[in-house]
Amino acid sequence: MKHLIAPSVLSADFANLQNDIEMINRSQADWFHIDIMDGVFVPNISFGFPVLKAIEKHASKPLDVHLMIVDPDRYLQEFKQAGAENITVHIEACTHLHRTLHAIKDLGCLAGVAVNPHTPVALLEDIIEDIDLVCLMSVNPGFGGQKFIENTYKKIRTLRSMASGRNDGLLIEIDGGVSNQNALKLIQAGADVLVAGNAVFSAADPVSEISGLKNLNPELIGS
Question: In the annotation, is 20 catalytic?
Answer without folding.
Answer: no
